[in-house]
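> Could you send the Synaptotagmin-2-like prediction when you get a chance?

Sure thing. Input:
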Amino acid sequence: MEAGSHGQLLSAELNMPFSDSVKYILLGTSVALLLVALGILTWQTFRYCKTRNTYTRQARVHSDVLYLDEKPRTAENYSAAPSSKVDGSLRFSVHYDQPQSRLGVTILQVKGLHCQTGGIQPFVKVRVMWAGSRRVKVADCKDEEGEGASPALWTVLQEWQTRIVKGICSPLFGEKFSCVLEQEKDMLQSINLRMEVWDFDKFSRNTLLGHVRAPLGHLNISDPLELHEDLQIPQKDLVGEVLLSLKFLPTSQRLEVGLLKVRTVLTNTGSDSALYARISVQCNHYKLGYQKTSAVSRDLVTIFNEVLMFSLPEFPMEQCKILVSVYETHTSWKSTKHLMGQLTVGKEKGSEDKHWTLMMRSVRQPVAKWHSLLI
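Output:
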């Protein structure tokens, strides 16, 4: 009798003190969570199988390093390419004082810029470009006559910038710049002035509106010469070559970027001149950060042999871009960095770089290739 009463008491205690409606809500929530968990499990299984099939189709390479000693093939952005007009023009003057070997440049006025709503804040950046004696063979590069030609390897001897003028479509500058050139035979014949008109943006990136080139070897500048030239669509100059190594590690979803060598024209910039690189990665329109190499003393061929590691997002990678920026600095005294040139490697939705393709075909193997360094 006592045992039966004790069982009834336990049964009463185990009964949940909830109404039937609350019980049904809890049951429905449990079933919904179970369905969500099953859906996530199914999706992860599908992605795993898809990724595995992708790697299975990729060709395997048995060598430790794939070294492709190929020259850069991008020729459409070199200064030898023809330019087209854009809105605006630039008025400037040039003078070369031969006894003192001093080159003087005066930026007078920018005229006829297209002013958008909110105004414009133009300024002018001036570069003195010198074509080194060494030439680089570049595939598919032709001169204006249609014959094969090797674009010159340029270097920036001097760089200046005017003040920023706010809210004026035809600003007056009247700013003078000068520098002393080396007294080498026919050096002036290999110098170009590259003047770029920019629109300053305080909260975003500055916009390049157009540029003007002035080959000093074709001008009589023994006396001050004033010129008025239309702005052209910007064209980049070849300032060097970079030997870059790429390796993709699918298991850890990482990318190894190796900066091996940098070729540039060596000028008399001093023994304390050094180079370093800033490498950034962006995938699926998401910035993955950047890393810097150590500074290495500059030479004709500057050897780095540094490898930087980046963690990539999960598949699929619809867009991925590697930006390498090479800077010059000085080790013996504190100085501002000077951008020498940049290069970009990667893939877009509709196309991808040859180097990127070779890397994906050679998973877990480093692939090295030369790239053009442009500015």
